[in-house]
Amino acid sequence: MRTSQKQRQQLNLRQRSYLATRALVLQQPLYGFDALIDRFAANSLLVEKRPLHDAAESVWKGDLDNFVDEQEETSADVIVNELIDRNLVDERDIETARYVASDLDDRGFFPKTARNYATSTGLDPAAVRRVLKAINTLEPAGLGAVDASHAIALQISRVLPAISVTECARILRAHSRSVSPGVIRACLSKMHMSTDTMTLQQVLTVIDPEPLRRLMPERPRAIIPDIVIEVDGSSGRLTCSVPLPSWTLGMDGAVLGSLEDPDLRKRAAREAGVVRWIDNAIAERTIALTKLGNALIDLLAPYLSREADAPRRVPVEKLMQATGISRTTMVRALRGKYVQTPRGTMRLRMLVMDQWETKSDAARQAITLLLASQVDGKPLSDREIAERIATSGIRISRRTVAKYRLSLGVPARYFRQR
C-alpha cells in the first residue's frame, strides 16, 4: 500500500524531531541534564520530571562525593580551555597559550612586548602574537589587552565593529584618568563614528576596565564527569563507565487515566512518544560515550594510567575509526564533556586533536625527519623536499612545504647554506 504525500511529510517531520532530540541529548553534559529535562516538561500537563532509579553504581543521583572533582579552575585554565574548544589556536600553539594565559595580570591584561616576552621564555614571537590575537576575541572583551585603554577599545569594537582599535586606544590613552561618557563620546566623534544616545548606551554597557573579574565565578565549580576511566582493583586494567543522569521524563498516570477528550488523548500519545524519544536518546548517548571512553583507553592507556608522562592527543579521525561514530555525532559527543581519569578530571576536548591537524601532522614529521637527516651537502629546496616525501606517499605542493617549514621554525634554503 502506497503512502500519501501528507503521510510521508508527517513521517519525515517525526524523524526530524527525533533526530533533533537525540542530538540535543547527546551534546548535553551531565551537569546540564536538570535544566534540559525541565525544558521538555515545562510546556506539558502530562509529562513530569522523575528521578531515575537504578541499582547500578554508574547512576549519578546528585551525590557530589561520588563522581565530582571539586576543583577551582584558574583563569589561565578557563582561557586555554575556551581557546581549544573554539579551535582558536593550533596544536603547536597550545603550550604558548598556557604560558601567555598564566602571565596575564590580575585585570586580564598582557602589558609585555611580545618579542621581549618570547625572548625571555624561549617562545616564538609569532606564536605569542597569534595567541594574544585569539585571546582578544574571547568573552569578556578586553582579555589580553595591553592596558585599560586598549581593553576599552576592544570592548567598543564589539558594539562598533568598524572602529579602529589601535586609533581608539591611542585617543583614550590621552584621557587615561577617566572613562566617562563624555570621554567616550569625544573619542567616537574624533573617529567620525555615531554618537547618538542609543549607541552611547550600548557602548557604556560593555565597558569594564578589569575584564578578568567577570571571567571567573565567585566560587569553585563542581565538575561532574560524563565519562569515568579508572583502574580496576582486581585486574589493574583501565575500565570505562558512563554515569547516567539523575532525572528523566515520565507520564503522569493520574492525569492520563482521566482523559476522555479525543484531542487530549492524541496529545497524550504525542507526548508519550517524546518520553520514549528521551529514553532512547539517553541510552544512545550512554552507548556513544562508552565507545568513546573505551577508544581513549585503547589509544591513550600509557598516558591515562600514568605509565608515560608525555601528554598526547588522539586524532579525531583515528577516534572515529575506532568507535564507528560519524563526524557530526563525534562533535556533539565531545562538546562540553568532562572525563575523570587517574590523572584527574579534565575536559574531553583536551584529549582529541582536530581533523585538519591530523592531515598535516604526517607531512610535518616527514619534513622534520628529512631536514634532520641532511647533515652535509647542499640544502634541499622546498620543491626537492616535496619530491622526496612524495616517494613515501605524502603528496603536497611546494607552497605547502614552505608553510610547514616556516611553522617548524626552519629558514629558507638561502639562509641554510654555509
Structure notes:
This protein is an alpha/beta fold and about 425 residues long. The chain has three domains: about 5-65 and about 225-350, no CATH class; about 75-215, no CATH class; about 355-415, Arc Repressor Mutant, subunit A. Helices cover about 55% and strands about 10% of the residues. The protein is built from 20 helices and ten strands. The protein has helices at about 5-25, 35-40, 65, 75-85, 95-100, 115-120, 125-135, 150-160, 165-175, 180-190, 195-205, 210-215, 255, 260-305, 315-325, 325-335, 355-375, 380-390, 400-405, 415, and strands spanning about 45-50, 70, 220-225, 225-230, 240, 245-250, 315, 340, 345, 350-355. The chain has a four-stranded mixed β-sheet with strand order 5-4-8-9, covered by helices on one side. Strand 4 (about 225-230) and strand 5 form a beta hairpin. Helix 8 (about 150-160) crosses helix 9. The chain is globular. Residues about 55-70 have low confidence and may be disordered.
Q: Biggest sheet: strands, sense, closure?
A: 4 strands, mixed
Unreliable sequence segments: 55-71
Strand order of the largest sheet: 5-4-8-9
Instruction: Give me the oligomer status.
Output: single chain
Shape category: globular
What is the mean predicted local confidence, pLDDT?
Answer: 77
Listing every helix as H and every strand as E from the N terminus to the C terminus, the arrangement reads HHEHEHHHHHHHHHEEEEHHEHHEEEHHHH
The radius of gyration over CA amounts to 27 Å
